[in-house]
Amino acid sequence: MSDLSEELGLIVRDIGAAGVAEMACSPGLAAAVDQHVAALRAQVPDLGHDALMGYLHGFAEDAFRRGWWPDDTRDWEFVRIVAVCWLMRQSSAQ
């Protein structure tokens, strides 16, 4: 794995962990994540950990290439990353 991929992985992990924790006290974020989860269920046929991790990796790389940076906890990319991380937690809890 390249240094950039490792850095992306750490950032995405941190975003996901912080966002999932923030959902407990932010109904607005929880509702936004729920909408993204519904879209992901339709878009990603296999919601297993490996498939979600692959999706997350590709999504994050594309977002960073477009110049996105995680400085707003309400932007579309942030919420999508949190939604994928929430789904991964749900799939590993089952």
Biggest pleated sheet? none
Stretches with pLDDT under 50, minimum 5 residues? none
Helix content: over 70%
How far apart are the termini?
A: 29 Å
Count the beta strands: 0
User: Globular, elongated, flat, extended or rod-shaped: what is the shape?
Assistant: globular
Percentage of residues in DSSP E strands:
under 5%
Sheet/helix structural class: mainly alpha
Q: Nearest-angstrom radius of gyration?
A: 13 Å
Report on this structure.
With 94 residues, the chain is an all-alpha fold. It has helices at 3-23, 27-43, 49-65, 76-93. Helix 1 (3-23) packs across helix 2 (27-43), helix 1 (3-23) crosses helix 3 and helix 1 (3-23) crosses helix 4. The protein is globular and about 30 Å long. The protein starts with a helix and ends with a helix.
What keywords describe this structure?
94 residues, 0% strand, globular, mainly alpha
Present the secondary structure layout.
Elements: H1 3-23, H2 27-43, H3 49-65, H4 76-93
Helix pairs in contact: 1-2, 1-3, 1-4, 2-4, 3-4
Overview in brief:
This protein is mainly alpha-helical.
